[in-house]
Amino acid sequence: MTYREDIDGLRAIAVLSVILYHFKFTSFGGGYIGVDVFFVISGYLITGIIAREIEQGRFSFLSFYERRIRRIFPALFVVLMATAVYGLWGLYPTEYKELGGSIAATLAFASNFFFYSLSDYFRPDVEIKPLLHTWSLAVEEQYYLVFPLFLVLAYRYSRRLVVPLIVGIGLVSFALSVWLVRSQPAAAFYLSPPRFWEMLVGSFLALAPLPALRARWSREIVSILGLGAILASALFYKSGAPFPGFRALPPVLGAAAVLYAGEHGTSWVARLLSMRPMVVIGLMSYSLYLWHWPIAAFAHLWFDRPLEVQDSWVLLPLTAVLSFVSWHFVERPFRKPGVMSRSRLWATNLSLSGIGIVLGIAVLFGSGFPSRFTPQVAAMASNLEYDDAAVYRRGTCFIDSNIQSASDFSTDVCLARDPAKPNLLLIGDSHAAHLWIGLKEALPSMNVMQAASTGCKPVIGGKGLPNCVAFMNGIFERLNELHPSLVLLSGRWSPDDLPYVTATASKLKADGWNVVVSGPIVEYQIALARILADADRDHHPGLPAERLVSLPKKVDALLRERMASVSVPYVSVYELMCPNGVCQTTTSDGDPMQWDYGHLTKQGSIELAKRIVKQLPFAAGTDISQTQ
């Protein structure tokens, strides 16, 4: 396969999409699709190389993995080392502990499993995980652990079945991706099997006997459609939309179309991608990808807020400089076979990987070395590792829609009525789940039932992931069976939710239910536990007030008006948290009220619930035990 400048240009499109997305250029809301373009390119190029060597009788697994080591490890080691050194200064113990685990997982090419176990890619807290982006390296390397063996065996026993087998496996992988996007989105995003089809598209293109595009007009049409599909996905997709699944088809097939058209001659797109600036960026794309995310994550922590597009004036040049140094002095030299003998390369790689894994595990089991900070700062920062499982009843009454389905909801436990007490039904997302323990403590004479799922607003027929809509509709359909004395709707409300929650509250009231809507809670630009630790460390007590998010207060005012218009009782959680305009940040015990950007700790929930119950209808003299 001869060198094609347009492929490096396509790499440039891919990496720029990812970087601009992560650096908060709002026009590139779907820039994450750049990773999918990389997968196609990788499958196309490496499959072509392996197939040619097999046909020539000179393929060697040892030589193949030697090339992978030269390509992947040197620059990766440098980035991991720099991240670990900076993290020793810039990360709190719980954060550094997680970084140690992610370094070990990255060197074992299992970081996709590591991050899958932690969170959803689109959640706010992932923006401070410096090695999150290595999940894609893990997926790719897992593919190349099995694909060369598959290709060797297929060529040996039935060469004519190679392409049909690739098609069949690819279709199974794609079907798995589509299914998991609906049922377990995090698994669809991070795990290898539902991602393999993207690399298999590239492999198919490299091996299938497709007709040549000899006419110039045919190449122009195919390449323009392909590039258009990639750019449209990067520009018009939104963060948080179900992905990959069907939404991955346009960028994946678009990349394949550009590669296919470029095989058979020049085109306008090929000339554009072959421009020198595009080629240089493409040549540096691996280093650019490696460096940009740790820079973004550490900047997020340095600023104590999410990144804004104006930050790119500093971050983009810094990324470019570090990437150029990495590419010129690390990547390029080590890719030359003569720089280091094969035996020395393997020995060095295995030694450094082993040392890195051991050190990462040491950091993990050393709890991130808390002695680096004062006991007060370390204690406050330890809340960043707050375990909400028992407090929120995660996995039973609060299901994680990223890894669970409605069938995991424990109806017998969560919706058990008590005939001897009034029954309160709490419905919502995580911002409902964090109220359960507080309401239970504040209302000992009531039975508090709970139905909650991550990201699922408690509205009838609302928008959202199919599993959310189905879950909520199923709960509302059971009201006659549950017969609650009071229905409390709580969620992380946004302006888009207002028509749905208004309609839902109105319908419940019209149907004869006592319904109360709980408003949005105070939110911070970054985890409150970290802000409070920073405030203590830097002697800056006013920092929490500076890091308040303004939207919840605005939504609170709008939602209050909406509920008043339909005569539905409303509890302003925001005002209860911020009496006289000063928001409570710590509990009576000195712990944070909220451990992340907005979720309550156990004691925070208890203290807030004591105020909430005074706003509920029965507090004004209504005997709800006699209603319904």
From TrEMBL:
Keyword Protease attached: no
GO cellular component: membrane
Domain Acyltransferase: 6-325
Domain SGNH span(s) in chain numbering: 408-613
Keyword list, A-Z: Membrane, Transmembrane, Transmembrane helix
Pfam families: Acyl_transf_3, SGNH
Example GO BP: lipopolysaccharide biosynthetic process
Membrane-spanning segments: 29-51, 72-93, 99-119, 161-181, 196-213, 220-237, 273-292, 312-330, 350-369
Gene Ontology terms for molecular function: acyltransferase activity, transferring groups other than amino-acyl groups
PANTHER family: ACETYLTRANSFERASE, ACYL_TRANSF_3 DOMAIN-CONTAINING PROTEIN
Protein's name according to its UniProt entry: Acyltransferase
Organism: Aureimonas ureilytica
